[in-house]
């Protein structure tokens, strides 16, 4: 009887162990199926909110084109200019002590002008000129250097800025062979200049220069008038020259008139 009881207990122990082992094998399958059913029956999770699209890249401001750049402010009184021109001159000259003779000549001119105003109203100018008098075998050369002190009594701004300038100075030049003996001479002169810019690209300038020259025999007065039109760095214009000479025996008035054109580079 004891042996049977012992065998019964051993048999139950083996059965319980078998059941536990079976449960251990089936548990993962049962739990996995339950999880799948719960996942299938549960509503889907709310989707994440969509982020707004990135803003379009803003192009960096590019430098304005040179053609659209604001024009440089031009000076109403200062100037640097290099030009060349030609002038036709004709008139009367004196032969001997009083004989009249007609003459005509073609004159070439190269000019360099620098006008500066260190002060708003006060400035100075330097003028260098030279060129042939005549273009034949008898041609001579005219060379001159002059300087003047300037004052600007009128300067204005606005839509059409401009100025009116007056000056007095001196010139040192080789004498015009028509009237003076070959050699160098000096003389005072006066100048008046008007400049205006009616538009942003166009400038107008006119000037008058008076040079009195006196020798032992003659009294010469030179009148030079100039009108120029500029756009950008280019300036073109016309010049008129009138010479009046008194002298001789008997005393007479000799007059010559010249006119010509010029073109050059100018910076205001």
Describe it.
- This protein has 268 residues and is mainly β.
- It has one helix at residues 2-41; strands at 79-95, 99-116, 122-133, 140-156, 162-174, 184-196, 202-214, 218-231, 234-247, 252-267.
- The longest helix has 40 residues, at 2-41.
- It is elongated and about 170 Å long.
Short synopsis of the structure:
It comes from Polyangium jinanense. Helices cover 15% and strands 55% of the residues. With 268 residues, it is mainly β.
Tell me the Rg in angstroms: 51 Å
Number of helices, counting only DSSP H or I runs of 4 residues or more: 1
Share of residues in helices: 10-25%
How does the major sheet shape up?
Answer: 10 strands, antiparallel, barrel
**Record field, number of beta strands:** 10
How much beta, percentage-wise? over 45%
Q: What class do helices, strands and sheet pairing give? A: mainly beta
- What does the average pLDDT come to? 80
Rough outline: elongated
Biggest sheet, spatial arrangement of strands:
1-2-3-4-5-6-7-8-9-10
Name the poorly predicted regions.
none
The end-to-end distance, rounded to whole angstroms, is 139 Å
Give the SSE string: HEEEEEEEEEE
Organism: Polyangium jinanense
Keywords: Signal
Protein name: Outer membrane protein beta-barrel domain-containing protein
Notable characteristics:
268 residues, mainly beta, ten-stranded antiparallel β-barrel
Detail the topology: elements first, then pairings.
Layout: H1 2-41, E1 79-95, E2 99-116, E3 122-133, E4 140-156, E5 162-174, E6 184-196, E7 202-214, E8 218-231, E9 234-247, E10 252-267
Antiparallel strand pairs: 1-2, 1-10, 2-3, 3-4, 4-5, 5-6, 6-7, 7-8, 8-9, 9-10
Signal peptide: 1-36
Biased composition (Pro residues): 44-58
Protein name: Outer membrane protein beta-barrel domain-containing protein
């Amino acid at each position: 009887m004891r042996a049977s009881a012992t065998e019964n207990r051993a048999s139950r122990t083996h059965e319980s162990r078998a059941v536990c082992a079976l449960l251990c094998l089936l548990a993962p399958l049962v739990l996995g199926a339950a999880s799948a059913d719960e996942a299938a029956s549960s509503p889907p999770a709310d989707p994440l909110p969509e982020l707004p699209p990135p803003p379009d890249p803003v192009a960096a401001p590019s430098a304005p084109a040179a053609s659209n750049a604001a024009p440089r402010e031009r000076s109403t009184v200062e100037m640097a200019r290099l030009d060349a021109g030609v002038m036709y001159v004709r008139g009367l000259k004196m032969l001997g002590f009083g004989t009249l003779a007609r003459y005509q000549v073609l004159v070439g001119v190269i000019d360099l002008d620098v006008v500066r105003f260190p002060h708003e109203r006060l400035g100075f100018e330097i003028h260098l000129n030279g060129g042939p008098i005549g273009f034949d075998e008898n041609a001579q050369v005219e060379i001159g250097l002059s300087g003047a002190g300037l004052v600007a009594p009128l300067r204005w701004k606005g839509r059409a800025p401009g100025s009116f300038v007056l000056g007095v100075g001196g010139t040192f030049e080789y004498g015009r062979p028509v009237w003076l003996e070959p050699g160098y001479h000096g003389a005072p002169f006066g100048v008046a200049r008007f400049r205006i810019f009616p538009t942003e690209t166009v400038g107008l300038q006119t000037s008058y220069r008076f040079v009195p020259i006196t020798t032992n025999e003659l009294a010469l007065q030179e009148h030079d008038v100039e009108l120029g039109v500029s756009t950008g760095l280019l300036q073109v214009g016309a010049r008129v020259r009138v010479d009046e000479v008194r002298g001789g025996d008997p005393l007479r008035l000799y007059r010559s008139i010249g006119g010509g054109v010029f073109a050059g580079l100018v910076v205001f």
